[in-house]
């Protein structure tokens, strides 16, 4: 399953919100040295109840807009 994600970094709370256009994911990490992407993968794996190895960022690794694949 491919989903569209908007990442909000430096948030006080970590959470995933479903919207009309995809998902908005709030992470505490800063977008430095791939920390925000690692936090994003961890949060999505918990949200969709799949191992972290089944979550992959297909495009947008250096952008707030990402396409993520969840393999089931």
Summarize the structure.
This protein is α+β, with helices and mostly antiparallel strands.
Describe the protein's architecture and organization.
The protein is α+β, with helices and mostly antiparallel strands. The protein has one domain: YggU-like (Conserved Hypothetical Protein Mth637, Chain: A), CATH 3.30.1200. The termini are close together.
SSE order and pairing:
Elements: E1 2-8, E2 15-19, E3 22-26, H1 35-48, E4 55-59, E5 65-70
Parallel strand pairs: 1-3
Antiparallel strand pairs: 1-5, 2-3, 4-5
How many structurally independent domains? 1
According to DSSP, the number of beta strands is 5
Strand order within the widest beta sheet: 2-3-1-5-4
- Point out poorly predicted stretches: none
Shape descriptor? globular
The CATH class: Alpha Beta
- Fraction in beta strands: 35-45%
Class from secondary-structure proportions: alpha+beta
SSE ordering: EEEHEE
Q: Report on the biggest sheet.
A: 5 strands, mixed
Tell me which CATH architecture applies here. 2-Layer Sandwich
Average pLDDT for all residues: 95
Our Rg estimate from Cα atoms comes to 11 Å
């Amino acid at each position: 399953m491919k989903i569209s994600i908007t990442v909000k970094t430096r948030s006080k709370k970590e959470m995933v919100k479903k919207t009309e256009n995809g998902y908005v994911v709030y992470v505490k990490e800063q977008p430095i040295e791939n920390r925000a992407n690692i936090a994003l993968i961890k949060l999505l794996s918990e949200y969709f109840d799949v191992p972290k190895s089944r979550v992959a960022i297909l495009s947008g690794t250096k952008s707030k807009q990402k396409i993520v694949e969840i393999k089931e």
